[in-house]
Protein 1
Amino acid sequence: MGARACETDAREHEGAQDDTRRTSRRVSELVDQGLVDRGEIEALERVAERFSVAITKDLVDLATPGDPNDPITKQFVPSKRELRILPEERVDPIGDDPHTPVKGITHRYPDRLLLKPVHVCPAYCRFCFRREKVGPGSEVLSREELAAALGYIRAHEEVWEVILSGGDPMILPPRKLAEITAALAAIEHVRVLRLHTRVPVMEPGRVDEVMARALRAPDLTTYVVLHTNHVRELGPKAREAIGRLVDAGIPMLSQTVLLRGVNDDAETLKELFRELVVLRVKPYYLHHGDLAVGTGHFRTSITEGQSIVRELRQGLSGIAQPTYVLDIPGGYGKVPIGPGYLGPEGEDGRRTVEDPWGRRHGYPPGGGEGAG
Ligand SMILES: *Cc1c(COP(=O)(O)O)cnc(C)c1O
Ligand code: SF4
């Protein structure tokens, strides 16, 4: 009976809001909305067979139909380029599978782990790094499985932080989220709850005061990390949703995926990161595109990424700078891959340091024994 409890909950919640927020899940609906050419239906049906398709009414409202460079369309409307699969691309691009001790948990670093209660999202990003795992019909944690996952966390005292991820955890009804929050708050060694979500952009109406309250509990500090890739995603409703979370006492961070044709230039990113800071969201990570299947058209090279990040360093406030990171394929973890400014130590112990404009300066040895 408890099996599929989360799924039922998610459906209930969706159902309650269905008429005001229609979500398009079929290629034919995208044609009706002017987001896809009729001639492409057949190819896109094939894309949709392999990878989940959904775009919320809120996102459609932000899109400019007919504009081939529209950042919303590019991120959410399927393209036949997704059928081009490169040999280096992987079904499990960041290597979650080897770090799954119990269903719903990915435990790669000692002090923090991912808890994935649900594998659906309100809409599907075409470059999703978990695209082989998310979507309707994907498994969700049953009540028993969730209890087992919580048992694992309880038994591992080194776990200081639990990251709710998925899918998108904010698709769950607040009642369910409040249950999870309370269960985690009751575990003494868990001090921080972090949610990774794109709901404030995809379906901002879900983020009401009840939701914000559901994420908080005494003895537990909650952070929300918003996935957002372009300033156009931050329409009036998204801004209000973010405001409600921060006003409820929840600090916010952001993560952005570097995407060719969407945000792969410094000016676009500056605009996004500045707006986030204005909205009280601290830019946290800029992700290099993962090697997810059928996403080659979205990836830049690391060299291109570094050159963009260099430009950010020259003309963007420090509090608006995220860390450029790569999730190493195979499950080896995330590392910063931004440009290096510090040269190697010379024989005399001196180094050179590059400033933001590329000029080199000497820096004396010191601090160590040799410095006397
Ligand atoms: C990304 C990730 C985290 C969080 O990493 P931070 O660097 O702390 O943001 C934790 N666990 C797994 C498995 C991850 O993929
Ligand atoms: S919100 Fe995250 S998990 Fe969901 S489709 Fe987008 S990238 Fe994938």
Protein 2
Amino acid sequence: MSDEYQLDTLAVRAGSQRSQFHEHSEALFLTSSFVFDSAEQAAKRFSGEEPGNIYARFTNPTVTMFEERLAALEGAQACVATASGMSAILACTMGLLSAGDHIVASRAIFGATVQLFSNILKRFGVEVSFVSPTDVAEWERAVRPNTKLFFAETPSNPLTEVCDIAALADIAHRHGAWLAVDNCFCTPILQRPLKLGADLVIHSATKYLDGQGRVLGGAVLGSKALLDGVYTFLRTAGPTLSAFNAWVFLKGLETLRLRMEAHSANALALAQWLEAQPKVVRVLYPGLPSHPQHALAMRQQKTGGGIVSFEVKGGKEAAWRVIDSTRLLSITANLGDTKTTITHPATTTHGRLTPEQRAAAGINDGLIRIAVGLEAVEDIQADLARGLAL
Ligand SMILES: *Cc1c(COP(=O)(O)O)cnc(C)c1O
């Protein structure tokens, strides 16, 4: 379906499969196994000689519909859905890497991804080097003969640093490695990493794909050949997406473009307003001309996205005052929700780092991250203005 229709149509229609009941909305198949017509058919299904559903650890029609719809949006040949964003990253690395392999990863990736790479995969003999998200030459210098995977996340959390996907793909391919991009912040509506040369796309569907903060899920996308290894891992180890969650994401994808454009418009308006506030030292948003990689971001992404970070004068006390003065915004670590969320990275998402590590990462005590929701932007501004006036 991908070549024939535009993105909006794919978001609503791709992957739909009707049962014999001719339902209009996609059906939710809550069944752990599937019945065969005969012993012979069961044998053929298990051997792979005949396609079809077997057991919901690795086949479920609702999950398949979600995989096909997301694959159509990312322009990917194949998709494997997983129980969470973290299990997508686990399935990707366990499915494609072996002991002795080396990963070059951006330093500015999701905290749990850093822990997975540097603590857990390390115990299984996979090595990792962390490099600057924005200094392309550093990635090339980190390459070793055993480098198999480049791992980037763009824009990064919470500083919204932008990785040059095409440039990283180029370096990775010259050294016989794959580039995986965590596309959580942009979604395929704003950024399509495979079109820019990436080999794999990772999603935490928990965020914008759901869009209303309800369920966890994830996905790995790429070529059929690469996804074979990921699927084999999922089929065997079982970090499987539940059918219910897949159904929630299917519905979420139908409104994804409308939501991403509304999140982006609100985020830009909020970022511009924050830049004019005397208590605000700096605003980090790729859609602002003052962002260090604004030009690259506007080439690579359709908008600046929905995440805005800013630094207030007065360090932690001032930042906490702004957060605690809000009445509307939710003090929570989630993002990609219709409800605006506000976070103090230094004491929450990045609280496990030492003060030196935080300083090196550019996350200082005055920093606040806002995942801009779909409320009226004037109400979000008024909610922040209260704490900024103190
Ligand atoms: C949340 C998040 C993840 C992890 O996803 P879960 O669904 O929480 O496991 C990975 N990458 C990014 C960028 C995220 O924001």
